[in-house]
Structures
1.
Amino acid sequence: MATLVLSTVGTLLGGPVGGAIGSLVGQSIDQQIFGSPSRGPRLGDLTVQTSSYGTQIPRIYGKMRVAGSVIWSTDLVESTQTSGAKGQPDLVYSYSVSLAVALSSRAIADIGRIWADGKLLRGESGDFKVSTDFRFYQGGEGQDIDPLIASIEGIEETPAYRGLALAVFENLELAEYGNRIPFLTFEILADASAPTLENILRDASDGLIDCDAPAEIVGYAALGGSMRDAIEPIVDTFTVDLIDDGSNLRSPLAASPSIIGTDDLGASADGKAVARMELEQAPSRSLPSSLSVVYYDPDRDYQAGQARSETLDQGATEQKAELPAVVDASSARMLVEQIMARRWAQRDKLTVRLPPAFMSANPGILVELTGSQTSWQIQRMTTDGMTVVVELRPAWKASASLAADPGRFVPPSDIILDGLTLALVELPDLAGDGLNPTVYLAASSTTPTWKRAPVQISNDQFSLGASTARRKAAMGSAETVLGDGAAGPIDTLN
């Protein structure tokens, strides 16, 4: 276990995380966080967009990619456009929608890229690939109501969703996505700088955890049915030691190793002879021979990555853990190797019975046994009369980081239509008899990249929707006056 806990303090960690956390009344912190079986957050919980009532909204820390939950939407809005040859117009139907997506139950700093059906809807530079009006609300306690939602629902019926980070799309064009609402994911995540483990644990527990864990992490999503579910992946994966001081969970006090002499062993309150020490060893089949940790990889646009560690013991079991955090491949490999090493190193448990002089010792401190080459850590302490019963586990140190390759990844194209130039050109009807004048649209860009874009041509009498060609036009100005030519045929000379 990664925690060191003793006393029962009822509902110490029963408060809400992400707006949907229950309490476990009357149980110890150990049970509330790590004891009874419970399904914690899965990585898929953050990548599947929902619109169901009562869905949990995670608390996001650092930088993360999430799908969020659609909390408000209009019906699809249909519009028609006329296209086709003169005298034979065709009606082209297109659709748009307006919607609001809740992203985090904790205020976030900004939104980066946005994906729709896996393709970039908003690029690295903040440009949108399809037409929409976009507004972002950080989730502060003073944010205003959205004007679009208020205009449709009424000001009195429109909440400001304070404490909830929102993304609002107004008139999002859906032609690119088969005229349906696409599956959206957002790069957010919440803090201007990388958060530390101790800050995440303190915030996610509403201040009930105050530990010394200064390691930084790219991003994390606190989500689950209890505070235990929300923070267990951090405490377990990063091996954060915690003890219960009766009101908070905190790091063990730093102290020099205590020396347990041979004469201190085998103490008893009534003077009866007891074992000087009791050594237990967990069977190998209860330990993992293979351990995998699934995580979010920032080098692969936050897609799931997997780090794996194996032992030579074939009689043990295969285990898998999911970490709803953003870590690079090398860090993930280091974590899974550390978890495996710690579990096997601490398969031994040594129970000793000590005299009252050791009552001042605290869980978490290191001890040395006279004659033993192993360093031990106090895992748990209880009292039996004037005798201190101490459970010891072998002390363990983290290993050095290991290099790892995140694997091959082909990101979606991020084409920026910068410096778009449009021109209307009056030419003969090249597709017909060549006599009727026709207005053509030419479009080009100063950049080498190009993507077809929707264009709307309108005046006081009509509005016409069109699209640029799939290849950009070659546009320029004539340096001299063109020579004479016939009106009907194409002048290939001039």
2.
Amino acid sequence: MMKSSVLAVAAIMLGAGLTGCATVTRGADTKFSVLTTPTGAAVTTSTGFSCSPTPCGMKMPRKDSFDVTITRVGYAPATQHIRSSVGGGGAAGMAGNILLGGVIGMAVDGSNGAMNDLSPNPLILTLAPLPPAGAPATASQSPIATPSPD
């Protein structure tokens, strides 16, 4: 009886050591949300993910930073960089690795991004309207004049 209990505890410890705490509690993916004003825009990422129309969300890997491009007819396209970095929940997962998972758990969480959060998330963006076709350009829309050499 004692021997089987020791083996059971050893098996649990080995299992915990082969997976990272953040991987178990948070996963390597997260929901990334985009909200725009006005709604109804299309969202694409530099990593090949997309959703439409806004507001929308997609399951994204926590591991890598990426760029988001938002488009809507009648509005200027907007691009935003999304950072992947260790977040509060990831730090707690790392602490769990120190207590239970050891070096293997830290390596698993570090390699699959489970310790990371995406920021900003949600991405909240107000799109800039384009001027109507044929409308004269305003000073802010005109090219910057450069002085001619005399």
